[in-house]
C-alpha cells in the first residue's frame, strides 16, 4: 500500500494541483486512492470541484464520514507535521504494507520540509514540484545539499506552470532538466484553464477536458503507476548519475 508524497520547493508551485491530479490518474489506473492534506489553509477540495467551504474529515474518521470525489477518499490531518507518531499511524492503518491496490497521496506544504524528510523514506515516490523560475533555481543547490541520499533516491521532479513562450522560462526548464536528468518526471504547461476551473467550481477534467495542463498532468500521473509496484522503497534508481541509470529508464522522463 504505497505512499506518494508531493512536496514543492516553494509555496504556489502548484503542488496541490499536481497532487490532486496524480491521485485522479492513479485512481483511473485502478488504484484505491486516499488523498491526505496536511495543511490548515487547504485548497485540495477545489481541484475536485467541491465547495470552498468543504472541510475534509480526519484521516482517523470513520468510513461513514468520508468525502469521496471521483472515487477518491479525501482526508485531512493538519497535526501530521508535528506528530511523531504519524508514520507509525500510517503503518497501523496498513498504508506502509506491500501491495498495489491501496494508495495514499500526501500533499505536504512547501514549508513543512522537516515533515517531508520524515515521511519520504517510507514513501514509494516523492514528487517535488518546481517552477522553471530563477528563484526556484536559486534554491535547488541548497535543497539538494540538505536531502539525504535515501530521500534523493525516491525523489522525482515535475516542472509546473511552464511557459515555453518565455525565454527565461524555457532556459530555466532546460537547466533543471540538465540538473536532475532522468529524475524529471515531466512538465506541465502554464494554462489559464487551471484557475478558471477553480473559479467555476469544477474539476479541470470537466471544465476543460482538452486543456494542455490536463494532458500534461495525466502523463505525470501515468508515469507514477510503476511506483505503486515498489511500495515502501525508492522506485527511482539510486546513484549520483541518475541519467546513466538503466532502472530509471522505465520512468518517462520526457523532454520538458
Ligand atoms: N499549470 C498551471 N497553470 C496555471 N495555473 C496553475 C497551474 N498549476 C497551478 N496553478 C495555479 O497556481 C496556484 C497555486 O497552485 P497550488 O497547487 O495551490 O500551489 P501549492 O500547493 O504549491 O502552493 C493556484 O491558483 C493554481 O490554480
Ligand atoms: Mg498546496
Automatic annotation (TrEMBL):
Residues 232-256 are annotated as: Disordered. Residues 240-256 have a biased composition (Low complexity). InterPro entries: Cellulose_synthase_operon_BcsQ, P-loop_NTPase. It comes from the Bacteria. Pfam families: CBP_BcsQ. This is ATPase.
Amino acid at each position: 500500500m504505497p505512499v506518494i508524497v508531493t512536496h514543492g520547493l516553494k509555496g504556489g508551485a502548484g503542488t496541490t494541483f499536481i497532487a490532486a491530479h496524480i491521485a485522479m490518474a492513479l485512481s483511473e489506473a485502478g488504484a484505491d486512492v486516499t488523498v491526505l492534506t496536511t495543511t490548515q489553509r487547504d485548497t485540495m477540495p477545489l481541484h475536485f470541484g467541491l465547495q470552498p467551504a468543504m472541510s475534509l474529515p480526519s484521516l482517523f474518521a470513520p468510513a461513514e464520514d468520508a468525502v469521496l470525489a471521483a472515487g477518491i477518499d479525501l482526508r485531512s490531518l493538519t497535526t501530521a507535521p508535528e506528530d511523531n507518531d504519524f508514520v507509525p499511524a500510517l503503518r497501523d492503518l496498513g498504508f506502509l504494507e506491500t501491495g498495489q491496490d491501496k494508495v495514499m497521496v500526501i500533499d505536504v506544504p512547501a514549508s513543512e520540509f522537516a515533515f517531508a524528510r520524515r515521511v519520504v523514506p517510507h514513501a514509494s515516490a516523492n514528487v517535488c514540484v518546481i517552477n522553471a523560475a530563477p528563484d526556484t533555481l536559486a534554491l535547488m543547490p541548497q535543497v539538494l545539499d540538505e536531502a539525504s541520499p535515501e530521500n534523493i533516491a525516491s525523489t522525482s521532479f515535475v516542472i509546473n506552470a511552464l511557459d515555453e513562450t518565455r525565454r527565461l522560462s524555457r532556459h530555466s526548464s532546460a537547466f533543471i532538466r540538465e540538473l536532475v536528468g532522468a529524475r524529471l518526471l515531466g512538465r506541465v504547461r502554464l494554462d489559464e484553464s487551471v484557475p478558471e476551473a477553480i473559479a467555476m467550481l469544477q474539476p479541470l477534467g470537466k471544465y476543460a477536458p482538452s486543456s494542455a495542463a490536463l494532458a500534461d498532468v495525466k502523463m505525470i500521473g501515468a508515469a507514477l503507476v510503476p511506483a505503486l509496484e515498489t511500495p515502501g522503497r525508492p522506485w527511482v534508481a539510486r546513484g549520483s548519475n541518475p541519467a546513466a541509470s538503466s532502472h530509471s529508464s522505465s520512468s518517462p522522463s520526457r523532454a520538458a
